[in-house]
Amino acid sequence: SQKIEQNSEALNIQEGKTATLTCNYTNYSPAYLQWYRQDPGRGPVFLLLIRENEKEKRKERLKVTFDTTLKQSLFHITASQPADSATYLCALVHTGGFKTIFGAGTRLFVKA
Amino acid sequence: GAGVSQSPSNKVTEKGKDVELRCDPISGHTALYWYRQSLGQGLEFLIYFQGNSAPDKSGLPSDRFSAERTGGSVSTLTIQRTQQEDSAVYLCASSLKMTGGDEQYFGPGTRLTVT
Predict the structure, then answer these.
(1) Residue, of B32 and A2, whose pLDDT is higher
(2) For the segment A67-97, what is each residue's pLDDT rounded down to a tens digit?
(3) Helix, strand, coil content of chain A in percent (nearest 5)
(4) Do A98 and B98 touch (CB under 8 A)?
(5) d(CA B83, CA B87)
(6) pLDDT tens figures, B6-34
(7) A-contacting residues of B 50-89, CB under 8 Å?
(8) A51 interfaces chain B, CB cutoff of 8 Å
(9) CA–CA distance, B54 with B52 (Å, rounded to integer)
(10) What share of chain B is helix, strand, coil (3-state, %, to 5)?
(11) Which chain B residue's Cα is nearest to A46?
(12) Are A48 and A57 in contact (CB under 8 A)?
């Protein structure tokens, strides 16, 4: 069955360091991969989209990579700040379809 | 403009009762999604609507769940004969067009508690 895995353990890092979050998937051929941020008590907020034929995408301090051979995406936040503390969700959209499958998310804590 | 709104923000109901959850998408957005999020879990896809096309209901967990979208705008998710396992946050999202991969704009969610 289709499966998306994100590290269930919280990631704790020091302010100024780079945070790296992982999204792995199996039995899936996504056309698109998205990353969202979710704060407690709120709905997710879109951050970045990467297509299956793209290797890397950047937006300000954010960088996403997409390796369809490894079936993995890495999400990086450089020069992290305490305000970056949140849960980060990856989401896959299948080729030819629009149903979006979300991972459970990874909680990030950035300490000042 | 206004974002996606959902009502009520919180709903407590007794087991066996029916509930209706409402979603107002962003004006002009043709696609609308419903998801369910249990504590500590990811978002579970329930249903999506795109324009006048038949909705994709493949994520609805049982026939107690149904949804409709009137006039291509407001959507209502109905849960009949609620069970305790239905307790979760129900999130609605809309997107501008359904070419795939479009960013989804989420509402704040409705927290449903079945006692």
Answers:
(1) B32
(2) 989 999 999 999 999 999 999 999 998 776 6
(3) 5, 60, 40
(4) yes
(5) 8
(6) 999 999 999 999 999 999 999 989 899 99
(7) 50, 56, 58-59
(8) yes
(9) 7
(10) 5, 45, 50
(11) B103
(12) yes
